[in-house]
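Hey team,

Filing this mostly as a record. A colleague (T.K.) asked me to run one chain through the structure pipeline before their review meeting, and I want the input and output archived in the tracker in case anyone asks later how it was produced. No errors, nothing strange. Just documentation.

Input sequence:
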Amino acid sequence: MSETVAIVGMGAVLPGINGADDLWEHLMSGEPPFRVDPDRCPPETFGATHSGGNSDRADVLAGGVISDEAGREHARTGDADSRAAPQQAVRWLREAAAQALRGVRTSSDDDCTSVIGAISEGDHLLDEGLVRQQLRSWTAQEYDADTAERVAAVFDQHYPNAREPSRGLAFHTCRDALRDLLPPGTHHLVVDSACSASLHAIDLAVKEIRRGQDLAICGGVYSVTPRYQVLFSALKGLSESGRVRSLGPEADGTLFSDGAGVVVLKRHEKALRDGDPVLGTIAGFGAASNGKTAVNAPHPAAQRRAVENALDSSGLVGRDIDWVIAHATGTPAGDEAELGMLRSLTPRRGWVLTSNKQLIGHTGPAAGIISTIHALLAMRHGRIPPQRPDDCHPATGDELEPLEVPRTERQWSARDSHPRTAAVMAFGFGGTNTCLLLRDRPSHHGGDAPATESDPLVVIDWTAHLPGAPTTDRLQHWLTGGSRTWADSFGPSYPAPGPHVIPLTPRALRAVDREQLMTASCVQRLSTELPEELRTRTGIVGACHGPSRTSCGNVLRCYLDDLSAKMRHDAVAEGVLNRFGEHVRTVVPATSSASVSGLMSNIGFGRAATQFGTGGFTLRLEAGRDTSLAALTTALRAVSDHDIDVGLVLAVSGHAPGPVAAALLGPDANPAEGAFGLAVARRSVAEHHRLPVLGRLALSEANHGDATEPVPDDRAYLGAEGIIAALRGLVRSDGAATTVSPVASRAAPSLLVTPPTTPKGDTTT
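Output structure:
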């Protein structure tokens, strides 16, 4: 587990930047890229200054926009549709990956993993596809077939890339981008923890390398979309000055930028054997969630725990760090909190501190990987770039001491006595805080031994939250093959939980998606009472597949004015759009400061961390039909490696029924609603704290025991199938083991589930 992991390749695509060398030149002498792109975000339909106070418009539309030609060199992704016109995010990520793989020795026999940080709500293709599908569905119900087809035809003229919304799902985007760059058996995983996602991706990829994978590719991708400009404008988080002034008193908000970044990992020994360039090594990683605080506010104590956890994992101390690349988005509250936290940790000799968002913009889930490449480039060139541009005025003097923000470049030459060490910070909306430590040479640290047969991984609790609140007996009857006696859905209006579950006002709750509310209700039903020392060592891994219901509705409101402008030249379409707009504004809440946290599915798991008071990492994963099995695998490995003591896996299925689900998930999709929770620990932890043991779980590369069985009826709890299969294994009465195998990826491990020898009665719900 202590084997050094090396970074052997890197690639980046950003506004005006195509490759690591371009990024270096930009850091040293480039100018900010921020502008309003009238093709991407037309001011007349998305800008607030043209709307007369419309809350569904953005006060700020400026950002960093990659030109449409970027990524064309490697656009082909191996199938006819994507060869014709792969969407922008696919092209950018593919180009960054191709750059990173140049000069790296690979083989078709390599065991590979890709882990990419991305926003699960998707990009332009998904947004426009969701609008298309919902408009088609509504017109088909309200008008005759000829009128519906005419409106659809006019729509398709103006939004030609909206025909396949499923291709805009984050998992499909990342998989398509890497298709035929990596071996066919590559296991693909998407991480959504907002702006900390790509640092989490690096950590998960490191774990795969240390478990025997030959190569891992990890990174992040983000596309500036009109909808997210509207949402973050509602939060008053965007810079009205049109500049990002990180780490300084003039900070007035951030600006987002398109971007994709990728690094390639190998075991250090293998990299040397293969003749690969070693750009740097992974020294440590730390993560922490906010715990019992707001999910949308910076939390310096949690940020500090992330840094301390990174130091603990590496065996380093504060004085070993030379340079910190701050998250520093340019928002006054965020930068002030981060500066205060870093000052409290900085040793007497101080740290050099810089950021890059004032030059590049905030690339969302790709921010951490871009800063990682920033650090690797400084190691290559032996220089730390200054804090630029010149009109950025960072904090100085007593308000900064003992940190130092350099206005000129710093020499950073390799020394035999002291490996160069950089800390990269990334904090995600929703209370996810991460720190990655990089060194220019191997750093050996033993760490904790993984769980073994003498200290196996055990289930300490499980629950399910379903329509009609079925009893334990009814749940177990269904899990063992009996009929389901509850409805597919909670109904058109989800029964909101009380303030003891989510402490929000009724008005605020109306803006929160039902998946988040279902997750909170599921967590409330978990019976295990964890002592405080375990809560701070508990991590949450969430699983759900595709955008939320609220996300589907929100994108409609955002695009209404753009739809009307583009379709007004057809009298029939214009009349239909007028009625459609009235309908949407009646059923979909207006955009507000609650809209961002209410619709982002990863926030639901951040709320669970707040509700449960956990201090470990919190993240959402997506792996297609294997999503909840991937979440279980991730939690088990983190518990086994002693990163956390308890892993809480939460899987939720809350999709909009009908045509939207069919468009996103396939014509045979028949989704049902439900949330499922499962808590795991090492047996020694369970015994020490007198927690129940409800069965054993173990990861396996080969099948053992009985084969996995499907969900016991014809409804699909999408994003939760793997956890349901594990629960079926836990409630078996014959004591036989069950193997839960991946559906789509043969490279992913299977899960061996062994039920308890003595039934535990009602302690499971």
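Quick notes for T.K.: Residues 533 and 645 are 10 Å apart (CA to CA). Residues 77-85, 703-707, 759-765 have pLDDT under 50 and may be disordered.
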